[in-house]
Amino acid sequence: MSNTQNNRTIWLCGIAAISFILVGSGMVYFILEDDKQVKRRRAGRRVERTTLRLLHQIKEEQQAIEVDIKNVEGNIEDRDCDEKAFKKKEYVLAHSNELLLRLMEKLDAIRPLTVIMGGETVNEPNEYERDLVSNIKVKKRTVIESIEALFRRLDISNGKMNKEKSRREELVKEQKRLEKEEAERFANEEKEKERVRRENERKAEEEQKRIAQEEALLRRKEEEANLAQELLIRQDDYEQVEIMEQEEVEVQEQASKQEEAILAAMKEVEQQDEQSK
Prior knowledge:
The chain is mainly alpha-helical and 277 residues long. It has a domain at 2-166. The protein is built from 4 helices and no strands.
């Protein structure tokens, strides 16, 4: 009887010990499992904060780009700005587009489920992790929509920019055409001036030659007239000399005749005297 009671006591103690071990193991399991869940929640929350900070940083960069776009899009068609200012506007739009593409690449690299679950692909996310993933998706979608809105504004601004650029290029072409026409007109005017100058020089030279010829002809005529006058004077002098010589001859002849008459008269007187004797 005593042995039977001892065996029963041992058996009951064994059952109690096994039960205690099982209960203890269950409690340890639940404690460990709960600790694991707490660590997952903390890790998920930590990753969420890091991701939200990254999204906030991207949002701030997007807002800075928006300010640059806003400063340009309102005065793209301002015709008073010079070419340097216009080129700067064109650069701002192109650079803003490039920066927005980089932000989209950063956003594309943010995968909410992968971020929260890390490299674990076996276990499904729990409700808390799904809430974290959903929150990141909402924030990410908000930033994406803001960037997409900027892309649409950029498309409108680029359309205006292309029209204004085409207008300015046409103005430059027109200005070059006018400058070319002005240069050709100036060249033609200079050519015409040169032609007129040469023509005037030719006419002046011909006029000088004509005047020189007329002066030479006049001098020759004057010389001929002077020579003729001199010849006339010489001829008059010669004729005067001849007249004087002729008069002298006549005087001599008359004197001779008078002398002969006197001699004849004297001879006649002598003859009469002789006859009277």
